[in-house]
Each structure stands twice: as C-alpha cells, then as structure tokens.
Amino acid sequence: MHKDDPPATLVYIPRDALKGRGTAWAIEHRFTSEHHEAFDDGWGTLEQTAQEEQAAPQTQIIEQQVRTILAGNDSPDIAFDLSINPYRGCEHGCVYCFARPTHSYLNLSPGLDFETKIIAKVNAAERLREALSSPRYEPKALNVGSATDCYQPVERRLRITRSVIEVLAESRHAFSIITKSSGIERDLDLLGPLARDGLHAAYVSLTTLDPALARIMEPRAASPQRRLKTIERLASAGVPVGVSVSPLIPFINEPELEHVIEQAAAAGATSAFAIVLRLPWEVSPLFQQWLQTHFPDRAARVMARIHDMRGGKDYDSDFATRMKGSGPWAELIGQRFQKAARRLGFNRDRVSMDTTAFRPPGAAGQGHLF
C-alpha cells in the first residue's frame, strides 16, 4: 500500500478454503471509496464468514476489445522497450505477483479477483497489426507476457497469444516471451524458425525445484519438473532460453538459488536473471497473510530480511534498487548469483536480437508478394 495509507488488517483464511488458489482474500484495492471492516461478535462469526465466503470461485474469462496492445516502457531497470500482454490477471495464483495491483484499475480486487477474473484481449492481433503498420512505427526490444503470463489456460481455446506471434512472425519482428507455462511448446513451429533467424528468445520462470513448495507459491502453474522439460524442448528447437529465478524470497526459495540455476543449465538454459521479492501496494498485505498461513514459524524472519533489503520498508520503488534490493543481504544474494552464473558459463547479458529484419505487415488476410 502507499506509505500514507493505514496498514491493512490481515484476515483469517483457513488453508482448506484456498483450494488451489494463491489467496482467497478479496482484498479491497487502493481506489476503493468504501471500506468494510469485519466485526467479531464473540460467536465465531469471522471464521464462519471466511469459510463461507472465501471458498475459491470458478475462473471467469472476460473478453475485452482493446484500443491499443503495445505498451511502452521507460523504466531504466527493464531490458525491453515495448510489451504485449494478451491477458490481464493470471490464473497461476502466485501470491507475490507484482502485477496484482493492476486489477485495481478495473475496480477489481488484486487478491482473489486477480486470479479468478481473467481479462482476455480478444482483438490483440488486430491492434498489433495496426500498430506495426503505422509509418511512424520503429521496431524496438519487445517482450510478450511481462505482466501476465501469456499462456493462460484459456489460451488453449482463445489462441490470442498464438495470433500475436503470427503477426510478429509475418512482420519479422524480434521479440521475447517470459512464461512459467508449458503452453509455449505448442508454438514451437513458429518460435523455432524465428529463433534461428535471431528473432526470438524465451525466458522460463523457475522459482523452486520443490514440488510441494511450488504448489504453495504458484498453485496453478506447471510443476518445476515440467518447466525444466519445457526449457529442454525449447533449447532442442533452437530457441535461446534464459531462466528467471524470481522472485527470491528470503528463507523460502532463496536457499535453492544455485541449485535452480544448475538444473536449468542442465536442461539447456544459457542465461539467467534473478529479482528479489517486491511488495508494491496491495501485494504486501496479501503476501504477509500468505506467510502467516503457510510459514508462521518464519514469517517474522522473512519480513525482517525484506525490510533489511528495502531500507526498513516493505517496498522501495527506486529504480536503482527495486529489482535487487540494497544492503549486505542483497549484496550477498547478488554475489551468489554471479558466482553460480559464471561457474555455469551463463551469458552475462540477455539474448540480443535482430531488429533490422522488420517489415510492416500487410492488411489482415493479405500476404506479401515478395
């Protein structure tokens, strides 16, 4: 939350109410004009209400016609200039997701709504074609899936990401994808040839190798072993693969840092990056409630370490430190990562791609003569 906002009151959520969700808390967002506070009447009302109301609902897909699909980035700590997110919200249910607060702009909860109300931008390919056809468009570093995984379960039916890749392939536009879904394997027929021409690279998010921990951290994402298999299949198809060991959470998945990188390298990854946990806005109370639910024995230690890396706060938005933190503990993580990457021969920089091959796409349904 904002530094001037009152701290959010953590709510009681029974573990069996989660049912495969990252959170069952429909936390109010920062733009809410009305605030509600639960009252304990001494008859167990709070626990009964939580059990009755916090049962995770079915996922709802909300189809949306968007006006634009390309988003610009001017943050100096992010390695791309443009991004495409075919979906908003994410069914994977990662409680730590930095994108959760974006649901606030839709008047939806960054908590339960973020993982159960998925916005599908059904005209994404059409809007992308229009943008790339503009005489003023200049190709820049482009990433697909930077805020929301572009391989949501519903992608199997809607194929929005597939249609975006088809437009990029037709345009010979270089791009990267970051995902923690094995769904990317479906599109290897497009991604493999593009990668061989220097037009594509993939990044797979791999936070832990422990299946039990993965089910808690990322309840509806592919298992760690399945993600390693995805890295292997991408690499076999000629796609340069990097691994994102993010976020690193002190005393939760941070001890696995070196082992995760080693296994990713064995599967075929050639580069890696790691980002320490970020807790902007509503993510902080959601994460702290998650800690108390799953790791009450170390919750205080985890938050103390986070404060050590964030200047005593839950989150620091300073571009210079928001991805890596500051202080001795953050420096130690950085040193561990660099040593492991150097030992494995990982590329120091992310894969560079060819932006000179770009050609504006034709009108929808119109191919190029030459």
Largest sheet, in brief, is: 7 strands, mixed
What is the number of helices?
12
* Arithmetic mean of pLDDT: 89
Strand content: 5-15%
Computed over alpha carbons, the radius of gyration is 21 Å
Q: Could you state the order of secondary-structure elements as H and E?
A: HEEEEHEHEHHEHEHHEHEHHH
General shape? globular
User: Are there runs of 5+ residues with pLDDT below 50, and where?
Assistant: 1-7
Helix content: 25-40%
Across the major sheet, the strand order is 2-3-6-7-8-9-10
Folded structure, characterized:
The protein has 370 residues and is α/β, with parallel strands linked by helices. It has a seven-stranded mixed beta sheet, covered by helices on one side. A three-stranded mixed beta sheet has the order 1-5-4. The protein is globular, with a radius of gyration of 21 Å. 32% of the residues lie in helices and 10% in strands. The longest helix is centred in the C-terminal third of the chain and has 16 residues, at 328-343. The chain contains twelve helices and ten strands. Strand 9 (241-244), helix 9 and strand 10 form a beta-alpha-beta unit. The protein has helices at 45-53, 112-116, 124-133, 155-158, 160-171, 188-196, 211-217, 224-236, 257-267, 283-294, 299-309, 328-343; strands at residues 60-64, 71-72, 82-84, 87-88, 117-121, 142-144, 175-179, 200-205, 241-244, 271-273.
